[in-house]
Amino acid sequence: MRNHTQIRRKSNFGPACVAVMGVCMVAMGATSALAQGLAQNPAQAAPPVNAVVLDRVVAVVNNQAILASDVDDEVRLAVLDPGRAGVVLTPKRALEQLISRAFIQQQIRQEDAQAAEPSQTEVDARLAELRKEVPACIHFNCTTEKGWSAFLFAYGLTPQRVESYLRYRVQILRFIELRFRQGIRIAPEEIEKYYRETLLPQYAPGEAIPPLDKVAPRIEEILLERQVNVLFDDWLKNLRKQGDVEVLDPSLESPEPAGGAAKGGA
Q1: Cβ–Cβ under 8 Å, residues 94 and 78
Q2: Exposed, middle or buried: residue 125 (CB in 10 Å: 0-12, 13-18, 19+)?
Q3: Which of 2, 1, 7, 5 is closest to 248 using CA atoms?
Q4: 37: which residues sit within 8 A by CB, 6+ positions away?
Q5: How confident is the model at residue 51 (pLDDT cuts 50, 70, 90)?
Q6: How many beta carbons lie within 10 A of that of residue 238, not counting itself?
Q7: Distances (CA, A) of 168 to 17, 59, 205
Q8: Positive or negative CA dihedral for 255, 108, 231, 169?
Q9: pLDDT over threshold 50, residue 22
Q10: For residue 141, what are the CA distances in angstroms to 129, 133, 134, 137, 152?
Q11: For the CA atoms of 106, 107, 109, 113, what is the dihedral angle to 10 degrees?
Q12: Does residue 84 have a pLDDT over 90?
């Protein structure tokens, strides 16, 4: 019986070949033609010295391929995450994020992709925020078009790729809102407890302390986010447990999946 809870490494061609639009079939056909040619002319045994591998499959998630170029792309896009300032995204971690993202996108398509699809206005608003928030943008003055263009060029990005990335992130947030936040209720007692045990100790003696009724809405938001994060992480872990992940590149194998990687890296 196949154990789907493990991330497996696989060296032979598998479902990934189907997922990359016949690239593997072309490669195998070329190999067959080369073999026939060698039988006729052994002098041609050496492969062309200038042969270059343009891309390759590094992992497969439920028959959906993840390419080496996707991992490279994810590493470059990490600069757009304000919370990752000064932290380098490794290829291993990037692949974990892409694996989680694949599971989430597959689930969104199964449930209601249309409901989670963000509007262009939402994506544009997020882009405007990002150009002000990203630490690396400070040196380029990304709020100007000239500065933004210089930033994109410096990090090997394009406006289209950035928009696609932001659209995904907004889509995930909307999906989480629709799927997990609905029905969660925060009791007044929980808000009061957070105010008394978490917020008040942060104030030094003599500092003005805001009254509970003024900060209650923000406390409720914090507690909601906590519960949503717990539900989302458990849901994602369950998807990975039931799903099928094959890591084809041994150098990208990770000892354990990163459960909540998709939200932040996503």
Answers
A1: yes
A2: middle
A3: 7
A4: 44
A5: low
A6: 12
A7: 25, 20, 45
A8: positive
A9: no
A10: 13, 11, 10, 6, 12
A11: -130
A12: no
Percentages helix, strand, coil for the chain, rounded to the nearest 5? Answer: 65, 5, 30
Q: 7-182+236-265: which CATH number, 1.10.3470, 1.10.8, 2.30.30, 1.10.4030?
A: 1.10.4030
> Residue 141 and residue 24: Cα distance in Å, rounded?
44
How far apart are the C-alpha atoms of 169 and 123, rounded to whole Å?
9
List, for residues 120-176, the tens digit of each pLDDT value: 999 999 999 989 888 888 889 999 999 999 999 999 999 999 999 999 888 888 888
Length of the chain: 266
The pLDDT, as a whole number, for residue 46 is: 52
Over range 247-253, report the average pLDDT.
Answer: 91
Question: Which phi and psi (to 5°) does residue 57 adopt?
Answer: -80, 130
pLDDT tens digits for range 208-245: 889 999 999 999 989 998 999 899 999 999 998 999 99
